[in-house]
Amino acid sequence: MKDGVIADFTVTEKMLTYFIQKAHNRHVLVRPRIVIGVPSEITPVEKRAVQDSAYRARASEVYLVEQAMAAIGAGLPIEEPLGNMVVDIGGGTTDIAVISMSGIVYSRSVRVAGNEMDEAVMQYLKRKYNLLVGERTAEQIKMQIGSAYPLEKPLTMEVKGRNLIEGVPRTVTIDDSEIRESLNECVATIVNAVRAALERTPPELSADISDRGIVLTGGGALLKNLDKRIREETGLPVSIADDSLASVVLGTGKMLSDFHLLRQVCID
């Protein structure tokens, strides 16, 4: 998967087959109904690729649902006639949606999320210290000392990598302000997308959002002080979903058990 869509068709098909068999105790003949969360601005070609992969993995029915719609997993009352705003920051995409009465009023997907942040950390270390680190190290740095807004207590971390000039291993000590600087562009893109969504929300629903606030889900929501940064820039209350890492999965699971809701929210 890359940027929330399929990059390798064969591997995706094998992965789905494995998960289906694991869920059904390795029974080969099962043909389950599958719900897949996709970015809101997915193209028809990308949509078709996702459906084909699932059908080739022996699914009987495939339903595509916008990832932000899986906000049900974050416990939002999406069926009520109230405005709910959810920002789902995953690995490949950030999906922003305003939801009311089981429908999406406004949605936007930006291909800036966790993976892009890791890349930004790698490029920063390369540029400033001539230090080459891998994706896993960059992700660790982001999780340990990365932040979107100044921290109350400064953090530092020792980073091991390869010196690009001499080609030998090297260790440098970096602090949270450097990583915040490296992530600033990615965070600003997400914040601007949130502001654009707020500008395009109908006034009646804007009133609901100003009361109920914005809910952050996905792994990227766990970036330190991201909620504080969005709160500072929008002036609205911001909360992080209880199980933000699993919100989309829990939401798609709820849809599978409520077929009426699934029919309402799935993409045609």
How is this fold's topology laid out?
Blueprint: H1 9-23, E1 33-38, H2 44-56, E2 61-66, E3 84-89, E4 94-100, E5 103-110, H3 114-129, E6 131-132, H4 135-145, E7 156-163, E8 169-175, H5 176-199, H6 203-212, E9 214-217, H7 226-234, E10 238-240, H8 247-257, H9 259-265
Parallel strand pairs: 1-2, 3-9, 9-10
Antiparallel strand pairs: 3-4, 4-5, 6-7, 7-8
Helix pairs in contact: 1-2, 3-4, 3-5, 5-7
Short description:
The protein has 268 residues and is of the alpha/beta class. It has helices at 9-23, 44-56, 114-129, 135-145, 176-199, 203-212, 226-234, 247-257, 259-265; strands at residues 33-38, 61-66, 84-89, 94-100, 103-110, 131-132, 156-163, 169-175, 214-217, 238-240. The chain is 43% helix and 21% strand.
Helix proportion: 40-55%
What's the CATH first level of the domain at 114-179?
Answer: Alpha Beta
Overall strand count: 10
Count up the helices.
9
CATH superfamily of the domain at 114-179: ATPase, substrate binding domain, subdomain 4
Strand count, sense and barrel status of the largest sheet are: 5 strands, mixed
Mind telling me which CATH architecture of the domain at 114-179 this is?
Alpha-Beta Complex
* Topology-level CATH name of the domain at 114-179: Actin, Chain A, domain 4
Overall form = globular
CA radius of gyration is 20 Å
Give me the side-by-side strand order of the main sheet: 5-4-3-9-10
- Measured distance between first and last alpha carbons: 22 Å
Provide the low-confidence segments as ranges. Answer: none
Structural class, from secondary structure content?
alpha/beta
Averaging pLDDT over every residue, what do you get?
91
Strand content: 15-25%
Task: List the helices and strands in order.
Answer: HEHEEEEHEHEEHHEHEHH
